[in-house]
Amino acid sequence: MMSSIKHYLAPFIAPIALSALMLSAPAIQAQNITLKVIGQPLATGNIQKNREQPFFEQLAAKTGLPITVEYKPLDTLGIKDTEQLRIMKAGLFDMVSLRFSQNSRDEPALIGMDLVGGSPDYEKSRKVVDAWLPILDARLQKQFGIKLLGHWPFGPQMIFCKKPITQLSDVKGMKIRVADQSMAKFLELVGATPVPMAFTEVHQALSLGVIDCAVTGPSSANSAAWSEIVTHQLPLGFQMSMNGYGISLKTWNRLKPDQQAKLQAAFTELTNDIWKYSKELSDDALRCNEGSDPCTTGKKYKVKTVPVSEADIKLVGTAIDKVSFPAWAPVCDKTNPTCSADWKKTVGPIVGVK
């Protein structure tokens, strides 16, 4: 009896099954998401090369999510590092490896976690960043439609000069490349002339004598071959050069809650790893720049390391209360009236600003 029924229904089952498959195809396709990603510039070196790019290339396999990643380093796109927030807001990309200080003119709150004198080393910087992150994330979501998935530092930002220096005060009268206004204000305090400039333009500017010195991390200076031009490095940390990974809310909201959790977990693991890797790179690059061993991650040069004095450490330590916060607060309050008050409540106790 059963076999005769199956035989009778056979002509109808195949079309029905085919129709069901066709109906389900768009639903399956709709789950696939292409992520267009702006990465760090190739010129920034090891973090981009050894951590960031491999992570995005393996993201689908690592998370098991139905995504296709189209990862492009910033300097292969013809986009300036100061334009990232505007490009994300326009919906041209889904994710960004966001350079905080470079985009602070569009959103001053980005500098709140990296004011000069507030984050001189990794331990203190992590506390500052974690305290400010919820407020910054809410701000970026509201103003630019970007949700932050994590943060990490390039490392202590220091001065590299092509002219001899023996202490911080020797930069008086020199033209120094900076990435944000916080650093610019501090250098004005010590008598230098700050020159805002994109990272990718610095090597040529140093070569041509447009600038005398430049501020960046030791690993970035080595990777970008600044160390073949400069003669002196002063290993005195001013900031940590914070970066973060942001995803457009439109793309984020297309993901199911369990998919969001998997993606967030992957970025948390990545950024925790970069914090450790950044410290290793910075220590090694300082040795590489001066031609010392061990040098395992960079190229050896012959840059002279200037001893850091207690007076210079003290001067940088006073910067946040005397210069960087007073200069930044009204700028941030202009775009967000509660900005500096929020910062004092969350970050102030950590850095000693009341």
Structure description:
With 354 residues, the chain is an alpha/beta fold. The chain folds into two domains: 18-153 and 241-282, 3-Layer(aba) Sandwich (D-Maltodextrin-Binding Protein, domain 2); 158-239 and 295-324, Bacterial extracellular solute-binding protein, family 7 (D-Maltodextrin-Binding Protein, domain 2, 3-Layer(aba) Sandwich), CATH 3.40.190.170. Helix content is 49%, strand content 16%. The chain has a six-stranded mixed β-sheet with strand order 7-6-8-5-9-11, sandwiched between helices. Strands 2-1-3-10-4 form a five-stranded mixed β-sheet, with helices on both faces. Helix 6 (181-189) links the parallel strand 6 and strand 7 (193-196). Helix 2 (46-57) runs antiparallel to helix 10 and helix 6 (181-189) packs antiparallel against helix 12. The chain is globular, with a radius of gyration of 25 Å. Mean pLDDT is 90; it is low at 1-30.
